[in-house]
Amino acid sequence: MTHKRRRMLYVAIGLVLLGSATALVLSAFQDSLVFFYSPTDLLAKPEAAGHAVRLGGLVEQGSVVKESDGVTTRFRVTDLKKSLLVAYKGVLPDLFREGQGVVVEGSLLPDGSFRANEVLAKHDEKYMPPEVAKALKANGEWRPAAQSQQQPASSSP
Amino acid sequence: MAARGTESTAAGEQLAMTLEFGHFALVLALLIAGLQTVVPLAGASRGDPRMMAFARAAALAQLLCVAIAFGALMQAFIISDFSVAAVANNSNSRQPLLYRMAGLWGNHEGSLLLWISILAIYGAAVAVFGGNLPARLRARVLAVQGAIAFGFLAFTLFASNPFARLDPAPADGAELNPILQDPGLAFHPPMLYLGYVGLSMAFSFAIAALIEGRVDAAWARWVRPWTLAAWTCLTAGIAGGSWWAYYTLGWGGWWFWDPTENASFMPWLIATALLHSAIVVEKRDALKGWTILLAILAFGFSLIGTFLVRSGIITSVHAFAVDPARGLFILALLIVYVGGGLLLFAWRAPALKGGGLFAPISREGALLINNLLLATAAATVLLGTIYPLILDTLGEGTVSVGPPYYNSTFMPIILPLIALTALGPMLSWKRADLAGALGRLRLALALAIAAALLAWWLHGGPALALLGVALAGWLFTGSLTEIIGRSRALSPGGLARLRRLPRAAWGMTLAHAGIAIAILGMTGSAAWKQEDIRVLKPGESAEIAGYSYRLEEVTPVPGPNYEATRARFTVSAGGRQVAVLHPEKRFFPVAETTTTQAAIRMLGIADLYGVIGEPDGKGGWTVRFYYEPLVPLIWIGFLIMAAGGVVSLSDRRYRVGAPQRARGAATAEVKALAR
Fold first, then answer.
1. Which of A28, A94, A134 comes nearest B405 by C-beta?
2. Cα of A111 to nearest chain B Cα, Å
3. Domain A35-150, what fold?
4. Interchain proximity B322–A155, CB inside 8 Å
5. What is the DSSP track for B576-611?
6. What ipTM goes with this model?
């Protein structure tokens, strides 16, 4: 094999690898992307039921209830327009609190409630998940004054 | 400082002076970095030895200035000077000393100063230990280092000043984020930074080589120890970070494909590829252009990681919440350095003549496949990390990319690579005998199958887990077979030959065996972890994986700056007590935050893992247990890999300042003359 032909062989191997990686990536994107919705958006999209999605908003004041088994929690996630009942079996993250921003991952059940298999924690209690802030803004429910204590801590003056 | 009260003491004045002095030193460092870039570059192209020699003095002066700045800020953190914004926002006078110190890099501004300090240390190391480098190459390497330092110093001073003051100063600080008040955080970021920033050395050597238009075996030998050092620190840093996530998040997992984890993993993948391709340059004078490209990309991925973590554009459990203007600044730095590097590469790379020819089935061929697979793997991780960003920018909705994506893209790429890792070292340079190499791996194949069968008999599956066990057995045995075969350790005098093997050979064996061990741990975690959540009252027990956990008591325990709720579990198996676990919940009143401290006890090669949750108000507590078989092997494997890096670094051929390298330089010069 000449030098040139050999080099072409390596380039071909590289292309085949890249091609298969692209195929893998595309097929993975088909079924493993998890979309983010606010309660209003999710309720307007019944076809999302059964798929893994993320739901973000605020934990509604006074909505957190522990089930009798002691480990299942029910609470409502609200974007201040609509809200959804979420059930989660497990230990809630340390930063989970009523009135705070929250993102839960799970799926919408046929009865219109949401089963979460993960409640996402943040490192910082003053930190509003950006998706939640965006969803609230999109709803016109973003009140910077009311949310001021939820601004990022390290954006110092 | 004066704002603290009316009694502005002389001591206070002195402290303020120290701080201003530190700030001034940082400005001075910026100016020196500018000179360090321009003067040696001009000197190298003119052949002026005095201008080239300036690079060494500048690198040392820069280290001195940056060290003064670092020391001044560290002092502010230690004595809790809340007139400094970075201290007031991230420290509190009741924090223990270790976390007051770690607070320096627990925030954006301070961690940038750490980044710059490490960069200055690397630069000074070239100045001190680079005596055997040709003067021209050394001047250019230090000039590129100066250019990197200049950009980051400008970023620090103009967009993220760690010395910014507050007036009036608050009475006490806002406290370091409690979840970061942990020994793991105190140590893993500096380790990671040593890795990230160390890759700048590979970058500087690559740019200097492109300017010179020459890449040869000597160049590969010079660049290798720096890359190896960076890789070793990165490996240890990633291991430390994942260990921290494992015990502090209380989720029983050790890797979440979180963007920040990916930010450290992508440079690691590219640095691993670079380590392997530099061998081909050194031994066979081939793959030069590709190696230079990898050196540029490795540092590029470090910068991408910095950008992703600090710009606030991605949602991550780690992301510093910072404003987008800073992200823009880092993006500009990224474009200048990597874009500039790639342009220079496109312009100069065709001048790099490849030397050694090799057949597809050869050591070179295997290393090339290794590189292609690693680079492709890094590309899929990059795509998964930034895809949400792309979709968001296009207005296509907000998405997240989680473990399922990586399982179906990264795994199919990395599993063949692991299988080939055992084979590659068996192949000879130039042209190899594939059948012969496979024949020598008979024992490895047999043991791999035996390990998979054993796992099947013990656990029964799933198939992917059996494959993981088989690969671990294959790679581990294959690595041992290689080093035993190479030294003929089993024939008479074998031990002596084993001892005389180059350290680099031992380093490779350790690193490959470490991967095998870590894979076994990852497989155990992914396939056979058991989990239980329930409510227990004191005196009740729960059983998981044959272990009975009895909640003995829950007691309040005061900490230095938190109130802990500590549970005591006694764990017994077969009626015999085997362990006592003390998980805690800690409430930090200043930050109004609760953190979880999981209790982990290693028993054989499995972890018993317990977490205490909330009280149910009726005398019971939510508790969570994990049984994590084989999981300790993950970190043991990582440590063995890092140890392989250290052993390889001590190889005489690569040792900094080794006479052999000077001879290498001489031959390189002769070669250049002969051209």
1. A28
2. 24
3. OB fold (Dihydrolipoamide Acetyltransferase, E2P) (2.40.50)
4. yes
5. EEEEEE--EEEEETTTTEEEEE-EEEEETTEEEEEE
6. 0.73
